[in-house]
Amino acid sequence: MRDRVVCLNLYESNFQQHSEGTELKAVDFPAYFEALELDRPIVADDAHTNPATWEFSASYFMPLGINSMLNVPIRSAGRIAGVICCEHIGETRQWQAGEISFVSSVANLMSLALEGDILQQEVGQLLQVVSTVEDGDLTTRADVSDRTTGLVADTFNRLLEQLGEVLSQVLSTAQSMSTGSTALGKLAQTVATNAQEQAQEVTQVQKLTEQVEQSTQSSTLAIDLANKSLLDVRSVVEQGQDAIDTMTQGIDVLQGGTNRIVQQMKALGEFVGLADQFVQDQSQIASLTQVLALNATLVAARASEQRDPRQFLVVAREFEAIASQVSNLAQQTNDGLVSLQQRTDQIHTVVSAVDAEIQNLGGLVSGFTTNVEQSNRVFGDVRMTTAQVVQAGEAVAQSNQEILNAAQATASAIQDIAEMATRTALLTGKAEQRSEKMENLSRSLLSSIEFFRLPVAFLDK
User: Fold this and answer.
1) Which domains does the chain have, with CATH numbers?
2) What is the pTM of this model?
3) What is the rounded distance in angstroms from the CA atom of residue 321 to the CA atom of residue 279?
């Protein structure tokens, strides 16, 4: 319901003039405005008493002398658009059916004219909105009314909203696509660069791994040779140990023989001492024999002086002969003893020299035995060290084998990584090309969408 009506044209027949500007408010005349909403002509033969018009009596009718009124509403799109008001000055009059019909017809004509004008305006406004949309401005909206054009305008507005939402989503997608394609291109370029660098590094690592593998193989060969040499050394040491053991046994035997020789030489020395003692005893015997011979000679001489000369002469001769023999024997014994003494001195000298040499030989043998024992210990240490070195060489060889296996496995893995890096580089190149195509498409789409001007609400989404 409208809250007021404004007079657009007032014609006064007695004065033959037109005027405008009078305004009636619904708050001041509620009964009148309610009667207009009933969409029926207000036929007030007595305007002062009619329920729809009595509110104007004191303020409007009486000052102007108006006593009768005929009002017919002008409707447009189901709403009150205006009123045709016929006022009679003078005595009250009864409005005739023809008059009511004529005024109603005029109101209908006014409604049709108004509808036509409004329709023309709305169609023009729709055409203007369509023209604006053709220029790419999707912010414009058609005015919606209760008429058929209003339904068309509402449908067109909804289409514009849906189109705006679609274009907004397309714009957002295109922007995201452009940003993503740019980022994807940069990322693809970075990945390609990293893939190339990775491929180069993998190639370098592969070369280093091959060098490590070659070094490991060379080290393995050297260790095999070293192990073989150590095994030869161990064999030689074992042979030397066997020779030392045999030498030690021979030295033990030589030591025993030397000890026996020393003992025999000691016995010989004792025998020589006994021989010296015997020589001394024989010398004394020889001296006694000479004394006895001398005494026998003296006895024989006395006997020859005291007794029968012939007998004593015989006896004396015998004693003399005996004495001579004993003297010769004693002389021979003395000579033999002298010779024996000389030989004994020589034997004693030789025995002393042999004893000294044997003692020296025993010292040398003892020193040699000590040296052999030291050599034996040294060979034992060498053998132990050789065994440890052999074990260490075996452990190193095993470690080198493990390193070789690890290097081979690493080389295989690096080869796989290199192949993957190559494939990654190819895929990255394709991705980069696709990202460039996507970026070009997104730019083209953005340039196409930028033709439209979307509402701010859609741009903020």
Assistant:
1) 4-119 (3.30.450.40), 207-426 (1.10.287.950)
2) 0.37
3) 26
